[in-house]
Structures are given as C-alpha cells and as structure tokens.
Design brief:
This protein has 8 helices and 8 strands, in the order αββαααβββαβαββαα. By secondary structure, it is an alpha+beta fold. Strands 1-2-3-4-5-6-8-7 form an 8-stranded mixed β-sheet, with helices on both faces. A hairpin with a 3-residue loop joins β1 and β2. The two termini are 12 Å apart.
Length: 208
C-alpha cells in the first residue's frame, strides 16, 4: 500500500503480522468491541482517560466510527482494531494519531489490549507492524509514545519494539481522572531501518 492510496481515501488498509491482522474499525465491530471493553473495564481504566457514561453504546460507537473515517481522510490519525488471524477474534486496538507533516513528519502511537489477551505478544506484533506502516506507507520520520512509569507491560512493549526512552513529562496526560507523569519514548526512521539492517527484522517488523 502506498501513501497515495492511504491519503486519497482508502480508509480500509489491512496490516498483517504472523498471528494477527489490523484493520480500520467498522460498525459491525460494535458488539465485539463493547463486549471486550466491558469485560476488561477494571483492567483498562487505570491506564486510560475516564470513559464517558455512554461510551459502550451503539450511538457512541457510531460517532466514533465517523470520527475515525474523517481523521483517515484528513491524514491526521489511523485507528485500527487488532484481530487474531486464526479465528478473527477481536484482541484490542491501536492508533497512529496526531499525524504531523511538514518539518515534523511524526505521529503518536497508542494502544489497548483486552485483559484476556494481554501478555501473549499480540500487541508487540501489532506495534512492530504499525512502525512499518508509519515509516514505509505514511512516509513519516518519527513515531512517539508515552507510558506511565509503573505500567511495566507498556514499557516492555515499547522497548521491545525499538522505542528509545527520551525523557520524563510531569502531569503529562489526564488518566483515570488525574494528571499522570509519563515516560516519553520515540523511534526515528533511521533507528528502525538500522534494526532491519542489523538483522533484527523478526523483532521489529514481523509479518512483512
């Protein structure tokens, strides 16, 4: 897939890894998404902004889908749901957001995983594939991410994917109703390409 197809209105890119695939959410995903989010509520809430009272409703999800489609058309954000290839089961989601062109050519990576599927390496595969998408298809130069320091799973995931710790931001994001400190990470295209050149492709870009 080329950048031209993405920004010209192809709102349904599909990215594959060894065990999973990522695609843009659709209205048909609502039952599986709402069920997984509800089942994982206590697992997810400590790491996310406060959920709106109607967050899991079909009406709210419809607004979410419309926003996703608009953001892709505008080349400002690329949201994906993550599915297991063998049976199409929804596992979680990830987004390349805040796409900045011009002299920045960067974006931010965010992700969530259903509690039942955490710790099995699925999101590590997804993060690696999203880096390939960001650098090869979107032609970006930098992907940023942030994690609360005590979110050990998130920190391990980012470091395994090749992200480099760059700093510490006090009161960086409003998470679960409180302003939380975050560790800041990033990976540049040169870092990512160097990993491939060093023969680390299995870690950095599985499924390509």
């Amino acid at each position: 897939m080329t950048l031209l197809r993405v920004v010209a209105g192809d709102v349904n890119p599909v990215l594959t890894t060894r065990r999973t695939y990522l695609r843009v959410p659709t209205m048909a995903d609502h039952p599986a998404w709402a069920g997984l989010r509800e089942a994982s509520r206590s697992f997810l809430e400590p790491w996310e902004p406060r959920w709106p009272h109607d967050d899991l409703t079909r009406a709210s999800f419809k607004r979410r889908i419309k926003r996703y489609q608009r953001e892709i058309r505008e080349d400002s954000s690329y949201p994906f749901f993550l599915f297991r290839s063998v049976d199409g089961l929804l596992l979680g989601g990830a987004t390349l957001s805040h796409v900045r062109r011009g002299v920045s050519m960067s974006c931010s990576l965010g992700y969530w995983m259903g509690e039942a599927h955490a710790g099995q390496g699925y999101m590590a595969e997804a993060a690696a594939r999203l880096l390939a998408f960001a650098f090869r298809d979107l032609r970006l130069h930098r992907v940023e991410a942030a994690s609360m320091p005590h979110n050990e799973r998130s920190v391990r995931l980012l470091e395994k994917a090749g992200f480099i710790r760059e700093g510490f931001a006090r009161g960086y994001l409003l998470i679960d109703g409180k302003w939380r400190d975050h560790v800041l990470y990033a990976v540049n295209a040169e870092d990512w390409q160097a990993g491939l050149a060093d023969g680390d492709a299995a870690r950095i870009s599985p499924g390509i």
